[in-house]
Design goal:
By secondary structure, the chain is α/β, with parallel strands linked by helices. The protein has 2 domains: 35 residues; 102 residues, no CATH class. β3 and β4 form a beta hairpin. The longest helix has 34 residues. It is extended and about 75 Å long.
Length: 153
Amino acid sequence: MRVHSIKIMILLLVAIIFVVTIFNQKDQNERSSARWADNFQLLAHFDNVSGLKVGSMVAIAGVEIGEVIDISYDTKSYQVLVKMVVDSKYNQLPVDSSAAIYTMGLMGDKFLAIEPGGAEEYLSDGDELEMTQSSLIIEQLIGQFLFSQTTRE
Protein backbone atom coordinates (compact mmCIF):
# COMPACT_ATOMS: atom_id res chain seq x y z
CA MET A 1 0.00 0.00 0.00
CA ARG A 2 2.80 2.40 0.89
CA VAL A 3 4.62 1.80 -2.43
CA HIS A 4 1.36 2.46 -4.28
CA SER A 5 0.97 5.84 -2.49
CA ILE A 6 4.53 6.84 -3.38
CA LYS A 7 3.91 6.01 -7.04
CA ILE A 8 0.75 8.13 -7.05
CA MET A 9 2.58 11.06 -5.42
CA ILE A 10 5.39 10.87 -7.99
CA LEU A 11 2.85 10.72 -10.82
CA LEU A 12 1.05 13.80 -9.42
CA LEU A 13 4.34 15.67 -9.08
CA VAL A 14 5.29 14.90 -12.69
CA ALA A 15 1.82 16.01 -13.86
CA ILE A 16 2.10 19.30 -11.95
CA ILE A 17 5.55 20.00 -13.39
CA PHE A 18 4.22 19.25 -16.89
CA VAL A 19 1.25 21.62 -16.50
CA VAL A 20 3.42 24.42 -15.07
CA THR A 21 5.89 24.00 -17.97
CA ILE A 22 3.09 24.22 -20.56
CA PHE A 23 1.64 27.40 -19.01
CA ASN A 24 5.09 28.95 -18.64
CA GLN A 25 5.88 28.31 -22.31
CA LYS A 26 2.55 29.80 -23.41
CA ASP A 27 3.11 32.87 -21.22
CA GLN A 28 6.65 33.29 -22.57
CA ASN A 29 5.40 33.18 -26.17
CA GLU A 30 2.75 35.81 -25.42
CA ARG A 31 5.30 38.08 -23.73
CA SER A 32 7.68 37.67 -26.66
CA SER A 33 4.97 38.69 -29.15
CA ALA A 34 4.03 41.73 -27.08
CA ARG A 35 7.67 42.66 -26.58
CA TRP A 36 8.24 43.18 -30.29
CA ALA A 37 4.81 44.68 -31.07
CA ASP A 38 6.28 47.83 -32.65
CA ASN A 39 8.76 46.27 -35.05
CA PHE A 40 9.79 45.53 -38.61
CA GLN A 41 10.85 42.26 -40.24
CA LEU A 42 14.12 41.51 -41.96
CA LEU A 43 15.22 38.45 -43.93
CA ALA A 44 18.60 36.78 -44.42
CA HIS A 45 19.79 33.67 -46.29
CA PHE A 46 22.50 31.44 -44.80
CA ASP A 47 24.26 28.26 -45.92
CA ASN A 48 24.18 26.86 -42.38
CA VAL A 49 22.27 27.96 -39.27
CA SER A 50 23.33 25.10 -37.01
CA GLY A 51 22.22 25.85 -33.45
CA LEU A 52 20.17 28.95 -34.29
CA LYS A 53 16.50 28.59 -33.34
CA VAL A 54 13.25 30.51 -33.30
CA GLY A 55 13.46 32.92 -30.37
CA SER A 56 17.22 33.40 -30.67
CA MET A 57 18.45 36.91 -29.97
CA VAL A 58 19.20 39.41 -32.74
CA ALA A 59 21.83 41.90 -31.58
CA ILE A 60 24.04 44.80 -32.60
CA ALA A 61 27.29 45.03 -30.63
CA GLY A 62 25.81 42.73 -27.97
CA VAL A 63 22.65 44.83 -27.50
CA GLU A 64 19.45 42.89 -28.10
CA ILE A 65 17.36 44.56 -30.79
CA GLY A 66 15.06 41.71 -31.85
CA GLU A 67 14.65 37.99 -32.24
CA VAL A 68 14.46 35.23 -34.83
CA ILE A 69 10.82 34.42 -35.65
CA ASP A 70 11.14 31.79 -38.39
CA ILE A 71 13.73 29.46 -39.91
CA SER A 72 12.94 27.60 -43.12
CA TYR A 73 14.70 25.98 -46.05
CA ASP A 74 14.45 27.90 -49.33
CA THR A 75 14.20 25.34 -52.14
CA LYS A 76 14.94 27.98 -54.79
CA SER A 77 18.26 29.19 -53.38
CA TYR A 78 19.14 25.95 -51.53
CA GLN A 79 19.84 28.03 -48.46
CA VAL A 80 18.19 28.59 -45.10
CA LEU A 81 15.89 31.61 -44.86
CA VAL A 82 15.87 33.33 -41.48
CA LYS A 83 13.13 35.82 -40.63
CA MET A 84 13.67 38.19 -37.73
CA VAL A 85 11.83 41.03 -36.05
CA VAL A 86 13.73 44.15 -35.05
CA ASP A 87 12.43 46.82 -32.69
CA SER A 88 11.42 49.87 -34.70
CA LYS A 89 13.62 52.16 -32.64
CA TYR A 90 16.52 50.53 -34.52
CA ASN A 91 15.02 51.31 -37.93
CA GLN A 92 18.08 53.15 -39.19
CA LEU A 93 20.10 50.12 -40.25
CA PRO A 94 22.02 50.85 -43.45
CA VAL A 95 21.09 48.70 -46.47
CA ASP A 96 24.66 47.35 -46.66
CA SER A 97 24.52 45.91 -43.12
CA SER A 98 25.53 42.28 -42.69
CA ALA A 99 24.38 39.39 -40.48
CA ALA A 100 26.41 36.62 -38.87
CA ILE A 101 25.60 33.73 -36.55
CA TYR A 102 27.72 33.68 -33.39
CA THR A 103 27.85 31.74 -30.14
CA MET A 104 27.46 33.35 -26.72
CA GLY A 105 30.57 32.22 -24.92
CA LEU A 106 32.35 28.96 -25.67
CA MET A 107 29.35 26.61 -25.48
CA GLY A 108 26.43 29.05 -25.29
CA ASP A 109 23.35 29.63 -27.40
CA LYS A 110 23.60 30.90 -30.95
CA PHE A 111 22.46 34.40 -31.81
CA LEU A 112 22.22 36.57 -34.90
CA ALA A 113 24.57 39.56 -34.93
CA ILE A 114 23.97 42.47 -37.26
CA GLU A 115 26.93 44.61 -38.26
CA PRO A 116 25.76 48.03 -39.52
CA GLY A 117 27.12 49.15 -42.86
CA GLY A 118 27.92 52.65 -44.04
CA ALA A 119 25.24 53.35 -46.66
CA GLU A 120 22.98 56.36 -46.33
CA GLU A 121 19.84 54.37 -47.26
CA TYR A 122 18.13 52.31 -44.55
CA LEU A 123 16.54 48.87 -44.47
CA SER A 124 12.75 48.79 -44.25
CA ASP A 125 10.13 46.19 -43.38
CA GLY A 126 10.62 42.99 -45.42
CA ASP A 127 14.11 43.85 -46.74
CA GLU A 128 16.87 41.27 -46.88
CA LEU A 129 20.36 41.46 -45.44
CA GLU A 130 22.43 40.46 -48.46
CA MET A 131 25.79 39.81 -46.76
CA THR A 132 25.70 36.90 -44.32
CA GLN A 133 28.12 34.62 -42.51
CA SER A 134 26.88 31.16 -41.59
CA SER A 135 27.28 29.39 -38.29
CA LEU A 136 30.73 27.94 -37.65
CA ILE A 137 30.77 24.21 -37.09
CA ILE A 138 33.30 23.25 -34.42
CA GLU A 139 33.77 19.76 -35.86
CA GLN A 140 34.79 21.22 -39.23
CA LEU A 141 37.28 23.59 -37.58
CA ILE A 142 38.83 20.76 -35.58
CA GLY A 143 39.03 18.59 -38.70
CA GLN A 144 40.73 21.38 -40.67
CA PHE A 145 43.20 21.95 -37.83
CA LEU A 146 44.04 18.23 -37.53
CA PHE A 147 44.35 17.87 -41.31
CA SER A 148 46.68 20.88 -41.53
CA GLN A 149 48.86 19.39 -38.76
CA THR A 150 49.20 16.03 -40.53
CA THR A 151 50.10 17.61 -43.88
CA ARG A 152 52.97 19.55 -42.30
CA GLU A 153 54.72 16.42 -41.09
